[in-house]
């Protein structure tokens, strides 16, 4: 059972917009920034969004993040076949002397 | 190019020990906190441990506390994870990840993992 809650799966057709939610609590998302990671099949995770809504250089602007209260969302617009991957949210948690927490991951399928 | 390369994974019996290494290059290693994150086969990501730039602050997940020890050698640009009393449930790919941080308004710290290494597989089985 992951501390951050994500839907296990999401899907969309090419060109569509999809969103992935991430729900936490006051000790993690509620008081710290949220990051999103993309893991393509058979590869290491890669930073997609940091500090709730910031894109690292090289990440297309089709990817966007937002946060409100104790929840966050990742939106992917103009869905492409190469976006098929697992997506994870993560945040620092201030409880228990501090630790990182991850969502369980969302497998995105491009139909 | 910023790069992290893990090594040291392999097959070990339950109750055994293993030491993972992560070699860093392309950045000032001594300026960054570092982390270990693992992923069991077919499962999601699980944070394992963090160590601050000067080793002053160390954190562990409850699942490994008392069995795993994180350390670093800034002179060698290397991060380590000593794993003792290994269990079947420790079987996973272990990734090292750099943790950039930015001090924000108030006491908030903005932090994230970037980049990640390619991972090293640890299999605990008899």
From TrEMBL, chain A:
SUPFAM superfamilies with a match to the protein in the record: Immunoglobulin
Keyword match Membrane: yes
TM region positions: none
SMART domains: IG, IGv
Keyword hit for Membrane: yes
Coiled coil: none
CDD domains: IgV_L_lambda
Keyword terms of this UniProt record: Adaptive immunity, Cell membrane, Disulfide bond, Immunity, Immunoglobulin, Immunoglobulin domain, Membrane, Secreted
Main localization (coarse): membrane
GO cellular component, one term: immunoglobulin complex
Subcellular location: Cell membrane; Secreted
Stretches for region Disordered: 1-24
GO biological process: adaptive immune response
Top-rank taxon, per record: Eukaryota
Gene3D superfamilies, sorted: Immunoglobulins (2.60.40.10)
Biased composition (Polar residues): 1-16
UniProt domain Ig-like: residue ranges: 1-91
Subunit description: Immunoglobulins are composed of two identical heavy chains and two identical light chains; disulfide-linked.
Name of the featured protein: IG c1659_light_IGLV1-44_IGLJ3
Organism of this sequence: Homo sapiens (Human)
